[in-house]
C-alpha cells in the first residue's frame, strides 16, 4: 500500500528536513521541486514476511500482502495463531506461515501446486502444517476456530483438513452434499446440507457449541461438548477421515475468531488480486 504524504513546504515540522528543493521524511524523499511524490509504506509484519520469501515479491504483491496485514491487524489483532496463504507465486512461499518462521508447512507425497491457485492432493499427497494443537497453549479446548478456503466444489467424502488421536479436528466434504465439522471432540459432529463449499469454510467452537460458516455467514450450529485437544499434526487434503481430497485449497488459518465475515472479505480480496477468486 502506498500512502501519499501531503506537505506544505512553508510549515516547519521537526521530523522533516529541507535541502534546497528536496524535502525528506525519515530519510525518504516525499517532495521534489514542490511536487508530491509517494512515500512507500509496508506493514511491519509484511516486511518480516518479505525477508523470508524467495524470490522477493514484486512491489505489487508486497502491496497486496501489506494491505492484508493492515486489515487483519485492524479486525483481528491477537486473534490469529497461524496463517498460510497457499495461493502463492511459488511452492516455497506458499508453505510459509505468515506470522511465524517456526510453523512453515511441508508437502508430503507430492501433492500438486498451481501458481497463485493453491494445492491439490494427488493420490496420497497432502500438506503437513507442522502444527500440533496440544503443543500450543493458545489452542483452547473450548475457544478456537479454523478457516479453510476451497477453490473447488467437490463433495468427495474427504477431509479438507483434519487430525485425530481419538479427539478430532475435521472439516469434511461428504458425498451427500453436506459439510461435517468436528472441533476437539471424539464422537458426534456438526453436519449441514449445502450445495457449495467454494470460498471460506470456517469451523469454530465456543464452549459446548460448534459453528459452521461459509464465506462469513453462519450455516449451522450444534451443541457438542468437547472431549479434548488432539495430540497430532493438522493435515490438509489428507486421508485422515477417508480418501484424499480432490479439492484445491488456497488458504488456511487457525485462530480465535468468533465472526469470520471480515476474514472472508480480506482473504477474498487478496485472492481476487491474484485472479483466482471464486466468489462474485
Indicate the overall shape: globular
Question: What portion of the residues fall into strands of 2 or more residues?
Answer: 35-45%
> How would you spell out the order of helices and strands?
EEEEEEHHEHEEEEEEEEEEEEEEH
Q: Assign the CATH class of the largest domain.
A: Mainly Beta
Assembly state here?
Answer: single chain
How is the topology of this model organized?
Blueprint: E1 2-3, E2 16-19, E3 22-25, E4 28-32, E5 35-36, E6 39-40, H1 44-52, H2 59-76, E7 80-85, H3 91-94, E8 106-108, E9 112-114, E10 118-120, E11 126-128, E12 143-150, E13 158-164, E14 168-174, E15 178-185, E16 190-193, E17 199-206, E18 209-214, E19 217-223, E20 235-236, E21 248-255, H4 261-274
Antiparallel strand pairs: 1-6, 2-3, 3-4, 4-5, 7-21, 8-11, 9-10, 10-21, 11-20, 12-17, 12-21, 13-14, 13-20, 14-15, 15-16, 17-18, 18-19
Explained architecture:
The protein is of the alpha+beta class and 280 residues long. It folds into 2 domains: 2-40, no CATH class; 44-274, Sandwich (Jelly Rolls), CATH 2.60.120.200. 16% of the residues lie in helices and 36% in strands. The chain is built from 4 helices and 21 strands. Strands 7, 9, 10, 12, 17, 18, 19 and 21 form an 8-stranded antiparallel β-sheet that branches. A 7-stranded antiparallel β-sheet has the order 8-11-20-13-14-15-16, with no helix packed on it. Strands 2-3-4-5 form a 4-stranded antiparallel β-sheet, with no helix packed on it. Helix 1 (44-52) crosses helix 2 and helix 2 (59-76) runs antiparallel to helix 4 (261-274). 40% of the residues are buried. Residues 1-22 and 24-28 have low confidence and may be disordered.
Amino acid at each position: 500500500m502506498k500512502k501519499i504524504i501531503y506537505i506544505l513546504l512553508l510549515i516547519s515540522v521537526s521530523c522533516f528536513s529541507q535541502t534546497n528543493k528536496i524535502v525528506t521524511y525519515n530519510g525518504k524523499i516525499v517532495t521534489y521541486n514542490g511536487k508530491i511524490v509517494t512515500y512507500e509504506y509496508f506493514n511491519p509484519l509484511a516486511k518480516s514476511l518479505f525477508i523470508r520469501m524467495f524470490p522477493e515479491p514484486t512491489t505489487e504483491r508486497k502491496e497486496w500482502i501489506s494491505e492484508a496485514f493492515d486489515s487483519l491487524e485492524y479486525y483481528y489483532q491477537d486473534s490469529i495463531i497461524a496463517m498460510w496463504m497457499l495461493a502463492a507465486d511459488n511452492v516455497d512461499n506458499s508453505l510459509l506461515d505468515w506470522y511465524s518462521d517456526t510453523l512453515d508447512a511441508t508437502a508430503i507425497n507430492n501433492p500438486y501446486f498451481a501458481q497463485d491457485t493453491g494445492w491439490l492432493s494427488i493420490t496420497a499427497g497432502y500438506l503437513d502444517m507442522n502444527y500440533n494443537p496440544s503443543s500450543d497453549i493458545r489452542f483452547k479446548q473450548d475457544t478456537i476456530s479454523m478457516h479453510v478456503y476451497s477453490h473447488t466444489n467437490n463433495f468427495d467424502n474427504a477431509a479438507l483438513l483434519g487430525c485425530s488421536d481419538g479427539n478430532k479436528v475435521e472439516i469434511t466434504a461428504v458425498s451427500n452434499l453436506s459439510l461435517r465439522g468436528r472441533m476437539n471432540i471424539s464422537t458426534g459432529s456438526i453436519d449441514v446440507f449445502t450445495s457449495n463449499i467454494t470460498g471460506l469454510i470456517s469451523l469454530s467452537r465456543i464452549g459446548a457449541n460448534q459453528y459452521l460458516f461459509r464465506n462469513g455467514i453462519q450455516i449451522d450450529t450444534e451443541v457438542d461438548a468437547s472431549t479434548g485437544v488432539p495430540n497430532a499434526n493438522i493435515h490438509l487434503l489428507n486421508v485422515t477421515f477417508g480418501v484424499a481430497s480432490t479439492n484445491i485449497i488456497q488458504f488456511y488459518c487457525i485462530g480465535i475468531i468468533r465472526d469470520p465475515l471480515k476474514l472472508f472479505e480480506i482473504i477474498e480480496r487478496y485472492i481476487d488480486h491474484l485472479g483466482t477468486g471464486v466468489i462474485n
